[in-house]
Amino acid sequence: MTLLSLIARRGFLSLKIFAVAALAAAAAEPSDNANRARQFVATHEAKIRPLEKASALAWWNANVTGKDEDFKAKEEAQNKLDQALAGKQQFAELKVIKNGKLTDRLMARQIEVLYLMYLEKQVDPELLKKMTAKANAIEQAFNVARAKVNGKEMTDSEVRKVLKEARESERRKAVWEASKAVGAVVEKDLKELINLRNQAARELGFKDYHVMQLHINEQSQEQVLKLFDQLDRLTREPFRRAKAEIDAKLAQNSGVKVTDLRPWHYHDPFFQESPAVFSTDLDAVYSKVDILKLCREYYGGIGLPIEDVIARSDLYEKPGKSPHAFCTDIDREGDVRALANIVPNDYWMGTMLHELGHSVYSSKNIPSSVPYVLRTEAHILTTEGVAMMFERPAKSADWLQAMGVTVPDPKGFNETGAQMLRNQLLIFSRWCQVMLRFEKELYGNPNQDLNKLWWDLVERYQMVHRPEGRNAPDYASKIHIVAAPAYYHNYMMGQLFASQVHHTIAREVLKTTPNKALYVGKPEVGEYMKKRVFVPGKTMSWNVLTKFATGEELNPKAFAADFRPE
Questions:
Q1: Residue 387 pLDDT more than 90?
Q2: Which of 47, 27, 50, 16 is nearest to 107 (CA)?
Q3: Where are the domains of the chain?
Q4: pTM of the entire structure?
Q5: Which of 36, 38, 116, 425 is the most buried (most CB within 10 A)?
Q6: Right CATH number for 212-305+343-562 from 1.10.1370.30, 1.10.357.10, 3.30.43.10, 3.40.50.1970?
Q7: Distance separating alpha carbons of residues 453 and 475, to the nearest angstrom
């Protein structure tokens, strides 16, 4: 029996069996190709591993400080890594090995993953450097950019506060427009970067960069668009109904007609989150909560402690620092850390549960017996799914009370939180439609009217009226288009994964219904996550892992159940 089939069995596979199976499979490999494969992987790891760590550290430092010298160091580190992966001789050897016979499935998987990694870098070295320099400059512009209204700079949290609380439409509009100003700053460079990326993709035989990125991530446009067309049909009418209720309350709050609502009347700059228009204000509870303490106790209670992650992290606002949040595994040896800008509110409670969810799906819990090349998440959608699943309890009074937090109106909090979560699933689904389809068209035809394309998609999928007479590169104010290209659809696929895994935990581990499945103080939840999601690392593709963890390939059934009003 091959290693992959051993892992794919429904029963739990111990780390000892995992390691023994790997050694046995390697020893049984008879061909010269196996020796070439082992040598290639060993050489790769010796050369690339220190470069990947240096690049990760430089990336971390640049985002923490925002300093020119740190961004320069980040660019230099990335260039060294790209150069090492761009070697024509190494790639030629890798292709020969990939096309040869490998009966050791673990080794074959490493070669498959490495092939896709090296493939992306097989372009003109000068072109790679140009792409890195351009992306680096744009990211730095985002890091230092702050919305400015009447001469006063505003942090990202201050922008969100105005959009959440202000009643005057003119005030909201001014702040919303200020939050979009970075788009005009980076537009020219972004368009140049798009063309450079397309040039690189075409050098490698792909139609455009979007097609290439999906291929490198073991997906295809056809596969992803088919899933998103299904989601469109699934969510369109429920979203329309939910948005009608939201719009009525937003219009009332700002004293305008529903037909006069515009993007600045929603509670975040992109309408990717559920507006807080309900009877209970979740922020009022979180304003008195120690968010980090809750996170420590929650993850520790389910057998996934994160004290070491918090100790390495940078968690509060300061000048020059990235205003966003992320988690990174520096070395695949347990140096995992998060960057955040915590403010005591509902948004940052959910965000910290999310980022620390990424942290537990890392080399903290993927064992060292998994080869270095595969010692990472199965796919970006699976790590996003884990983070999203752990984020969801922030909307539950039952969860807060189980964590020892007093909630003055638990019934109201639960009703509001449940409605916000349902709306959030629907709203986020529609927002992801915009991002996927915009990026597909952006790379497919970057010379079209991108401002019009953006608002056409926003109106179609989010049902938000474009601002009359506005002709600004609002699309360029979304940092993911720069820093995480062709990535955003994985957030939505991650939501499907989150629902599917949660339903499995409720059914198989906690023996209850999904809406009653609280993880608080349940180490068996952490044990399930380790054995069925974390331990395999990248030894499985994302759909194989989904079936291993839940019994089914990725599908929208559990997600659909999660946004039904009942």
A1: yes
A2: 27
A3: 22-122, 212-305+343-562
A4: 0.85
A5: 425
A6: 1.10.1370.30
A7: 9
